[in-house]
Amino acid sequence: MEPIRLIVGLGNPGIEYEATRHNVGFWLVDQLAESYKASFNVEPGFFGLVAKFKTLEGNIYLLKPSTYMNRSGQAVRALAQFYKITTEQILVLHDELDLMPGEVKLKKGGGHAGHNGLRDIQAQLGSPDFWRIRIGVGHPRKLGLSQQVADYVLHPPRKEDMPFLEDSLMRARVSIDALLRGDKNLASRALSEHKDK
Questions:
Q1: 152 is in an annotated binding site
Q2: Residue ranges of the domains in the chain?
Q3: Residue 139 CB partners (closer than 8 Å, separation 6+)
Q4: Is 70 part of any known ligand binding site?
Q5: 95-140, pLDDT tens digit by residue?
Q6: Residue 191 contacts residue 50 (beta carbons within 8 Å)
Q7: Average per-residue pLDDT in the chain?
Q8: Percent of the chain residues topping a pLDDT of 90
Q9: β-strand 58-65 against 48-55: which pairing, if any?
Q10: Is 139 labeled as catalytic in the residue annotation?
């Protein structure tokens, strides 16, 4: 696989969205920045907050788009074009309704499954062939809730779901470390074990 050079966390800007399910991509990219001692700076030309750290393979960029979710691709395209990063060198971290809290999966390419952030990134890049780490937040129907999906993702996770989400984020960090070393098999294995509810 090509080395990952850009890691994008998806979420909505603003304090009112910080703790919501739709922002778990932001949570994870914030944890990565802390792990690698990288600081986010406002980069208006890239429509977001950007941090950078070095590995043996070169510079790795972390991106938090400052647009709303459905315009996330604008920031991804701007940064990727400027630094000549290919679609296959991009990893997107996002919430996933089709996985339960505690489940997290690595995927390359595929559809957007109605996720507005992924939809816009695909449209802006002209390709779906980027990597994704899908962080399970559960679907309201599977959890026995009557909320509409749009409302559900814009609310914080239930208290009982948080330990499973925290566990999945921890495993995702291990997986990303493996991906940055180009070890896809280890990256996938790191995500496979999860807590039993």
A1: no
A2: 6-192
A3: 97, 98, 149, 152
A4: yes
A5: 999 999 999 999 999 988 889 999 999 999 999 999 999 999 999 9
A6: no
A7: 93
A8: 82
A9: antiparallel
A10: no
Whole-number pLDDT of residue 1? 77
Q: Which residue has the tokens 């999966």?
A: 105
**Three-state SS at 187:** helix
| Annotated catalytic residue within 22, 112, 155, 194 | 22
What's the predicted TM-score (pTM) here? Answer: 0.95
Q: What is the CATH number of domain 6-192?
A: 3.40.50.1470
Q: Is the pLDDT of residue 41 over 80?
A: yes
- Region at 156 (left for phi over 0; alpha for psi -120 to 50; beta for the rest): beta
DSSP character at residue 19:
T
Radius of gyration, CA atoms only, the chain:
16
Q: Pull the structure tokens for residue 105.
A: 């999966």
Q: Is 83 annotated as a binding residue?
A: no
- In this structure, what token pair is assigned to residue 154? 């814009």
The CA-atom distances, in angstroms, between 166 and each of 18, 22, 48, 112 are 15, 15, 25, 24
